[in-house]
Amino acid sequence: MKSVTCSGPVNIAVIKYWGKKDEKLITPLNDSISVTLSQDELRAKTTVTLSETYAEDKIWLNGIEEPISNPRLQACLREIRARAQTQHGSIPAGCVQIVSENNFPTAAGLASSAAGYACLVFALSRLYDVSGDISAVARQGSGSACRSVLGGFVRWRAGERPDGTDSLAEQVAPASHWPDLHCLILIACHDRKKVASTSGMSRTAETSELMRARLEGLPARLTAITTAIEQRDFPAFAELTMRDSNQLHAVCQDTYPPIRYMTDVSHAVVETVHTYNRLLGGMRACYTFDAGPNACIYLPAAEVGPFLAAVARVFPPPDPACWVTGRSVELPQLPEELAAELQPRIPGGVQGVIHTAVGDGPRLLEQTE
Ligand code: DP6
pLDDT for 9-47, tens place per residue? Predict the structure, then answer.
């Protein structure tokens, strides 16, 4: 019997993946770029155990047994075992049991499948002693998962080959390159999302005319944000991030029938960020939204307290004492000009905040034989 426990990070894209070239291989229509978040606050944790006494593969997610027949899960298992066979000439006998849990709300737009599949594939690669790039395997679990196999700032190259072998993740810069970049997840709602990203993006690719314009503009945006990351140029990074999120949700609106992930709370967060930047001068915080209502705010460490004071003003928290989790932060008094313009709007609209920052790739926590 051999057992491996690993943890894997969440990533939140700043240039989004939306639309597939190949539904089965999960290759994207465009390159995307993301930031891997610290596992100290958000992580998937997976234990994989291989034993000759197990008659079949099994999986439990957050304590509930799920069907192992899931084609994406099967693709990951098959690919890791095929690599083990090629690298070692044989694979150990027996089946695997997989136990995985997240420490954050599943399917609320928080990229839980990305952390989960990246962690699973990393753990399986250790269990079967498989070396080499594993992003193409994680990609077959969930597209965005391929970016969670690396830390820091990550680009997923769409690739050109029809078999998807060049559709891989690569690191733009490690986490240590920009430790001052912090992240706040503003939880607008704990509910499961209504239109899953998989079906949402295929509907957009089939029906949205604006999608063509998005794809034409993306190469320039990808180049610009890579430069912004390399130069730690927050104002450029922030504007490109917000524009890309806005465009993603515009093509969702242009999808037929339309898809709406952002709620009134999400839009009020957008307005709060722009008002905060305008009144304090310069680019101090930016937002991005995935396929759900929660906002991901990227901002320099020094802005975390003042920005949260502004958010608390617009969305008075039900219980201020336990509103922010993760890294600790002091909320200062809101400057008068901000307090005057930012009036309380939606009490309890932001149910909670997770304060985190850029982080590393998957970690091996424990290995026993
Ligand atoms: C909005 O990776 O969840 O978060 O490949 O079908 O599993 P599948 O989709 P998924 O889509 C993520 C979409 C997004 C943008 C992004 O992370 O780039």
Answer: 999 999 999 999 999 999 999 999 999 999 999 999 999
Q: How many Å separate Cα 326 from the centre of its chain?
A: 17
Task: Give tens-digit pLDDT for 141-190.
Answer: 999 999 999 999 999 999 999 999 999 999 999 999 999 999 999 999 66
User: 93: CA distance to ligand 1 center in Å?
Assistant: 34
* Torsion sign (Cα): 269, 272, 278, 284: negative
Q: 78 Cβ partners below 8 Å, 6+ apart?
A: none
User: For atom 12 of ligand 1, which residue has the closest CA?
Assistant: 144
CA of 17 to the centre of ligand 1 (A): 6
Alpha-carbon gap, residue 45 to 118, rounded angstroms? 10
Closest ligand 1 atom to residue 16 Cα is 18
Gap between the Cα atoms of 322 and 334, Å rounded: 19
Full set of structural domains in the chain with CATH: 2-175 (3.30.230.10), 181-357 (3.30.70.890)
